[in-house]
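INFO batch 0412 | record 1 of 1 | parsing
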Amino acid sequence: MRKLNEGANDNGDLRDQARQRESEGRNMNVLTVGAVKAAISALKAQRIHEHFPAYLQLRKLAVTSGSLVNLAPEWRDVGDLLKMPGGPPTKPHYRPFSSRKRKDESTFWYNKNLAGSYAPKSMRATSRFMLNADGDGYELPTNHAQQALTALLQSTRVPAWAFAAYCMRNYGFTFDGTGGYEELLAGFKSEFAFESGSDFEVLFEDSEPSGTDYDWFESLSTLQLSILKGNKEGIRWSK
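INFO prediction complete | emitting C-alpha cells
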C-alpha cells in the first residue's frame, strides 16, 4: 500500500495511473460518504481512549521492525490519518471518539501538535504500558494488545468496520466487483499490520453491521481524479 502521490509530480501522474488501471479493468474505488458517516456515529457511541491511535502506530512499528523496544514512531503518519477539513484553523485533526462522554462536537477536534499529545510525559497512568521502565521512551510489553483492550478500550472491542472506514476514508482500493465489508477489512489489516497473529481479534469486533442503508464503495473515475487540485494529503492506494 502506498500514497498515489509518492513519486508523482502533478495530478497528470494520478490521471495516468487511473487510466492504466481502468484499461486493466481495475478501477479505483473509495469509501462512500454514507459509510464514513456511519463509522463516525458508531465510534462516537463507544468509549475509546484518545491514545488508541498512538498505540496502533507503536504496535505497527513493533510488528514491522520485529522489536517491542526502542520504538521511534513517526507521529506524522497518525496525523495524516486524522486530518479532516472543515475544523477550526488551529485544530486540523478529528478524532470521532473519546474516553469520556462529550456533548460538544467541537471537542472532537485536536490541535496540530500530536507529537506533544503522544509524548512520554503526556502518557498518564492509563497509557504507561506503552513506555519503557524509565518512562522516557516507547516500548510495548508482550501482552500489549490485552493491556490496550483493558486500558484504552475499557475492555470493549471496537467495531472493526467503523474504525477501518474512518481510518481508510482517504484510501483508494482495487478489487473485482462492487466491494464491501471484506475488502474494507482486508485493506485495514494490511495497512495496520494485522495480517497475522491474534491482536486483531483481541482489539476488534469482526462483525458486519446489519441493516445498512448505504453502499460501502463507489468508483473514483479518471474525471474525478482530474479535478483534484494540489491535494497535499493525497489518496492512498490499497491493493
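INFO post-check: Residues 52-65 form the longest helix (14 residues).
INFO record closed
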